[in-house]
Amino acid sequence: MKFIVWARKRNDADALWFDLPYSPRDRNSAEDLIDYYTQEWGSIYEYEIHRAGRYGTTPSGMREPCFVGHM
C-alpha cells in the first residue's frame, strides 16, 4: 500500500491542506519524510499520512486543488 503526506500551517486559521510533491511511498518512508520536514522547519506545519490510489483518503478540512492518488 502507498501513502501520501499532507501538510498545512499550524497557526493559520485559513490554511489549506496540500500534498507534499513526492511520489506515493510506503508508510515508513512517509513517516521518515515527516521527520525530515519537522527537523528542517520545526512545528510550523502539521502533517498527516493518508492512503494513496483510487481509494485513497485525504485530510478533513479544506485543501488545495490537486490530483493525488491516481496511479
Provide structural commentary.
The chain is an alpha+beta fold and 71 residues long. The chain contains one helix and three strands. It has one helix at residues 27-41; strands spanning 3-9, 18-19, 45-51. Strands 2-1-3 form a three-stranded antiparallel beta sheet, covered by helices on one side. The radius of gyration is 12 Å and the shape is flat. The termini are close together. The mean pLDDT is 88.
Low-confidence parts, pLDDT < 50 over ≥5 residues? none
Shape: flat
Residue fraction in strands: 15-25%
Name the structural class: alpha+beta
The run of helices and strands is EEHE
Our count of helices gives: 1
Distance between the termini: 12 Å
Helix content: 10-25%
| Biggest sheet descriptor | 3 strands, antiparallel
* CA gyration radius, whole angstroms: 12 Å
Spatial arrangement of strands, main beta sheet: 2-1-3
Report the count of strand segments.
Answer: 3
Mean pLDDT: 88
Task: Give short descriptive properties of this protein.
alpha+beta, 3-stranded antiparallel β-sheet, about 70 residues, about 20% helix, 3 strands
Helix-strand blueprint:
Blueprint: E1 3-9, E2 18-19, H1 27-41, E3 45-51
Antiparallel strand pairs: 1-2, 1-3
